[in-house]
Amino acid sequence: MEYYSIKDLVEQAVSNNTTISEIVIQTEINESEQTQKEIEQKMYENIDVMKKAISRGKKGDLKSESGLIGGQSSILSSQENIFSGNIYHKAVINALAVAEVNACMGKIVACPTAGSCGIIPGVLLAVQKELGKNDKELSKALFTASGLGKVIAHKATLAGAAGGCQAECGSAAAMAAGGVVELINGNPEMVSHAFALALKNLLGLVCDPVAGLVEIPCVKRNGFAAAHALTAVDMALAGIKSAIPADEVIEAMEQIGRLLPDSLKETARGGLAITETGKKIRKGCLKC
Amino acid sequence: MSIFNIMGPIMIGPSSSHTAGPVKIGNIARLIFADKIITADIYFHGSFAETYKGHGTDRAIVGGLLGYTPDDEKIKDSLTYAKNNNIKINFGKIDLKNTHPNTILIKISNNKKELNIQGASTGGGDIVIQKINGYQVNISAKYPTLWLLHRDKPGMAGKITSVLGKHNLNIAYMQLFRKQRGRTASSIIELDHKISNNILEELTAITGIKEIKFIPAL
User: Fold this and answer.
1) Contact A109 B47 (CB under 8 A)
2) Cα–Cα distance list, A278 to A76, A106, A251, A270, A281 (Å)
3) What is the interface pTM, i.e. ipTM, of the complex?
């Protein structure tokens, strides 16, 4: 069993009358020569790190090297009147918490990267809690997300330095959206549409980190991308389809990434990094 | 590719290239030095030189020298731990000319010996050791790796690989570099398996072998 495209994943799931997560698990068993139990255990370890990162970040007492990041998740979660929807709010709070832990040298799961590590846990753990799903069900959603990400790694890139932030946060949002659809028992085609819609609507997102650090806009962007994933989930579950198939969206992302100038691909030589304030932050933060 | 490369690794943030990778470089330096570290002079080149504090690259390297793995929460306080262990750490910037933008030069020493090691963090937590004590190498530590310093003369490579073959050890990748004809050469052999101490002893006993180090897969 192998898969090289989203189409492969969907077709194999459908023809075997199973879920994308099962295809991903079986493929991993074949390729890694590990047992199902060992692979499942590894995913539970990831879940444990994700949960601890959310709790740690929500405490609000972390401060990054630049001093500009830390406490945002806690500020948001202490708001009494939430303007937007409940689950969006929770997903954003979670995502911010994990991203803050990352920025402050805490322990996280790079899923798919350290810079985008808040998005998948942010969304999936909020949905898990909201719907009362157990860790086994959550782990299956994470396997689905992983498989979707593996296709991106194969066809394009997951690195901001190569493809801009669309490759990191765009990919993470798409992986999260697909994972949530499976968690809520959406079918494989719906998973692929959620994935495609999420990725498509973050195409062109650049990587212009202020002072070259994984802080601004990175941490808050994890929150935005988490909310974005839920929008894709809503549409896909309602039966809305992406006009451009998932694999072609990945190809577009790859092409756009190649066309992006180096100044907007993790070099801090463009965009936000060279704004008046961005430059001040870099200077003021000479020690970093 | 394992899906745990996508949903993982578990690591200390903020960056695979600027934090997790440097931990591994520190780990390899520690393994090769194989002795108590008294002083470590760490020089950052390129993009590392600009952001080493903000990305925790300084603490990552020191964590690696202390033997911490990339997911060890002690990394954040590694400078304190180093101080408590009476290890003197100095940081500086260096221009290494035509090399990867994320390159580090480490000089480790104690009263008995010194080690100079240069490595780059190439992205996603991957690393490559480029120089050991001035000898060119190309070690990624993705496989169990043997590094051998030996005389540059006909038959050396054959003697080394015969020992490996005799013990049924398969070679995945192999490279040989020399500084000057007839002097000392540096061989890097990446294997499919770990290597036991008795095989290392057998290799060390080959005439012409000056030094051998085994680096496990990281």
Assistant:
1) no
2) 24, 25, 32, 10, 5
3) 0.95
